[in-house]
Hints:
Blueprint: H1 4-10, E1 34-36, E2 39-40, H2 52-65, E3 69-73, H3 76-87, E4 93-97, H4 102-112, E5 118-122, H5 127-134, E6 141-146, H6 158-167, E7 171-175, H7 180-183, E8 193-197, E9 211-215, H8 218-231, H9 237-247, H10 250-268, E10 274-278, H11 288-294, E11 301-306, H12 309-317, E12 324-325, E13 335-337, E14 358-362, H13 368-380
Parallel strand pairs: 4-5, 4-6, 6-7, 7-8, 12-13
Antiparallel strand pairs: 1-2, 3-9, 8-9, 10-11, 11-14, 13-14
Amino acid sequence: xxxxxxxxxxxxxxxxxxxxxxxxxxxxxxxxxxxxxxxxxxxxxxxxxxxxxxxxxxxxxxxxxxxxxxxxxxxxxxxxxxxxxxxxxxxxxxxxxxxxxxxxxxxxxxxxxxxxxxxxxxxxxxxxxxxxxxxxxxxxxxxxxxxxxxxxxxxxxxxxxxxxxxxxxxxxxxxxxxxxxxxxxxxxxxxxxxxxxxxxxxxxxxxxxxxxxxxxxxxxxxxxxxxxxxxxxxxxxxxxxxxxxxxxxxxxxxxxxxxxxxxxxxxxxxxxxxxxxxxxxxxxxxxxxxxxxxxxxxxxxxxxxxxxxxxxxxxxxxxxxxxxxxxxxxxxxxxxxxxxxxxxxxxxxxxxxxxxxxxxxxxxxxxxxxxxxxxxxxxxx
Length: 381
């Protein structure tokens, strides 16, 4: 099996050996019978340490991203925290973009910085700024790349940044949540690790919270595996099952998300009340050429600024009928959010503060015409 869509359906998902069930059963047990002290059947002892349903998901994730191993966690932030703890030490440095997900910045700034980690925030699209942030970096340095970014849809050149990071001795991590492994393959572009909120496109149905780390290095994979076991922020068997079920349709969903988002973005350009549309699929987007080079298509996320400022942005976000006002993203249904007071409230007053005229759209798989009409009527309101 070599093509993505085939692997998404079958990798790590062999029919059950005992019954022939095409979909492997959900192993909801907490513990496993032993045939003698230390003589474990199939290597399973206790579900914090290993569970067949979670293992199936992890095999699938590693396969889709081309990693040596993948580990599934209870949330995206739990996955990020495990990776950071596995690699960092007091005195280490994290270099991240000035438009990353607010929760990621909060995790490093409020949890890891008090532990003694340095945090440097730069514009990842400015190569000179990144190079400067890496100068004199300690031995343990992480270059944290998010592309497309949340919510301003900035694009970073993964291959270029990986080369720059490695020249400085840094571990290069890519948050690939917005793109998913179907649209973008960071490990093949030189990254050392990929992180996901599997809550989003991988799960795809707004019914499960989870996270994952996929790694290219065996030693770091072992360190993350230990923290998954030792700290215990694992995904439950049922959450692993739901995520695996979602991944089976990832390719076809991402095609529809991308096509719909392109149609929505083009319809909003020049629309009354719209100051600017942020979507890498638009030819005038500053990162369009880089995105076209490293992505299969441009994804389902976009943002826009309203010419009426904060008041207009809030009214618009509260006036849609098909788009649901809610946090999160990546589900089959279209969502609308006001990042300044919702997803990015934790970074207000910092260098990552989101302008208050910005509205973020997670474009779902509904009929594109209905989505465009809904946004048009909201703008009229």
